[in-house]
Please model this.
Amino acid sequence: MPFQLVIRIVLITLVTLLLSGCGMARLMEGMVQTNEPNERMLGQLFAVGGGGKADIGDDGIARIAVEHHPEETVWRPAVILMDRPGDLEILFRNRNPQNHLMIVASSDGGMRALDLPPLQTGRARVHFGTPGMYMFADAMGNHMGRGMMGMVVVGGEVPDEARLDRPPQPRP
Amino acid sequence: MNRTINCTRLFSFLLPVLVAACADAPETGPETQQAMPIASLNAASPGQAPPVAQAVTSERLVRARSEPHNWLTYYGAYDGQRFSSLDEIRTGNVKNLKVAWTFQHAPMTLMAAHPTYGFEATPIVIDGVMFISGWNGYVWALDATNGKLLWEYQHAVPLDTPLCCGNINRGVAVARGKVFYATPDAHLIALDAMSGDVAWEKVFGDIRAGETATVAPLVVKNLVLVGASGGEFGVRGHIDAFDVDTGKRVWRHYTIPRPEEPGGETWGNSEAWQRGGGTTWITGTYDPELDLVYWGTGNPGPDFRGNLRPGANLFTNSVLALDPDDGTRRWHYQWTPHDLWDYDGVGENILFDRDGRKLLAHFDKNGHLFILDRTNGEFVRAVKFTETTWGDIDPNTGAMTVHLRPTPEGTEIKPGPSGGKEGFPHAAYSPKSGFLYVPVIENTATFKTGPADFKEGQPWWGGDVETLDHPQSGALKAFDPATGREVWASSSEYPMAGSVLATAGDLVFSGQLDGHFAAWDARTGEQLWRFQTGSGIHSSPITYSVDGRQYVAIPSGWGGWIAGIAPKMMGAPRGAALFVFSLP
Model:
């Protein structure tokens, strides 16, 4: 078999697999039935934008990008995981012809507001000082009620000096 | 070469197809937007307050009574009397009180314990500037003459904060140019009093272990003192002291001793101390002459399963007299040994003198008013101030007799878990009338014991209480601490859950859960004036003056532990507004 033909077959197979992979992903989303505007309301059910982990850079700041795609009312990812308390930088990419007004909780200077015009990108730097769950939401119209909210889940522990002086206790 | 060209052509063709197939959205434009603190997007707020707090020294706090135009510290003064010598507003003209200004705020997103948020803080006023905390991490500086927002701070509170009873806060402390604030997730934050910027921040509780905070800090000398909440989560209570200027922790006092420490023998179980409770969620009082801080402690854990912690369970449900410099305990008095009813002993300890004797008054959740000698904790007398069926305190010796305990099938007991008076709100004492004034809750609950499997950070009651199906009401009562005599009582259709303010105008102010803020004649109990604020009062009124004009301020906003205090008001209007009144 000529080498050129082999290359062509391999490439076509690869492309076919990739295309079918994309199609399968869409098919699976459709099967869940929560990821598209449904018949009873024009929004989506809560937090179906998936999860993503914020990577901590050399400067100690965790970073992640979230996007709003057309014909969806979720942020992807909608759940951001941070390994420990600290600074988080979220890049909000608006790939949708809608305006958004992002509200992000922060312990450093209070709640942040980010105006996000259609097809624009914006950055929010926030700080979370305690392990736990923090919200980000779209304050435009009722985007929040229609699914455009998300959560930052911060792991880790409080500083040792703040912990109780007692033996380790069973956790759930 | 031909192979390379062909492959390149193939990639050139396939790559756009691939991208088009998988990417179903247009690319975004350039990064053009930067997030801003939302507080900076309020053109009506200058973001700056006058430098009134710079000169608030510990000496001024000791002499707070000599500055009646200010409300310098949580109770107005270290003695916890909640009394003001201002008398422009008095019995003869209180009917003319009108709203001078209001301040409102509301949540912008979901927040921790959203259905329970309330406005419970005590405002601090210094030379025309008011500092007040709200729910969900808010602190505000306001112009005390017109309510203008000078600056705003917000701390991010995790949605999953293990709040037992509500997203609320009791207030701030102000000294040496800083505003001290304990967040719901147990951070102590020092804010620059002029800008609201963070000067320092320390974590003093473990949210993963179920610790939180609602307390208003107390500044004593060069230290700022805070207590933590979490008595329903099996924590080990403590009081912490931090350096005012640097935030360095100077001491921590655990309220539950280890087995080898004094009091450790009162736990009867080698592990019970580790989860003993005894939390410290209400601000203490301070006697500068004796140099003693009086701080209350909460219920033992688990709340209703006493068999897991046999013994008196020191130092829960007690008042601790502490050396403020190092946290050493000088003496203690336990109001309810081996508590089985969630009758925290955290409530205020009012310091007053009578017949040359230095005394301390405490209205306990167990339904009894206690009078102690505050120099040494010696029992003076006890008086029942509401109906109790759980048991009795001997008025002459303080000895406790228990009649009713929680049972697996449930036992009806008075008072319910909110007590005859909650740990919060607070009573008052008028040195002018010589009377104590107390907001009273009359209720019953069915107490049940139940499973008590402990997991850190999870509620640990060892049973439950049913409150909804029982009658409930309340009263504002006056007592003579010299004799224990009830002087007057003004009944209320609902439990009284607002703190009392006593003034030299012979008035007492308090609020009711139907939204009325009212004034009573301090000597007769006759209600002289009231105003409908629109939401239940579960907060602490204060009074102050600016340029000779007296104001009375009250936060309105029903929330907190509604199920325990007044379950029949579960559906009453919520809200969050500060009302300030003055004469026309």
Summary: Residues 231 and 277 of chain B are 5 Å apart (CA to CA). Confidence is low (pLDDT under 50) at residues 1-5, 13-23 of chain B.
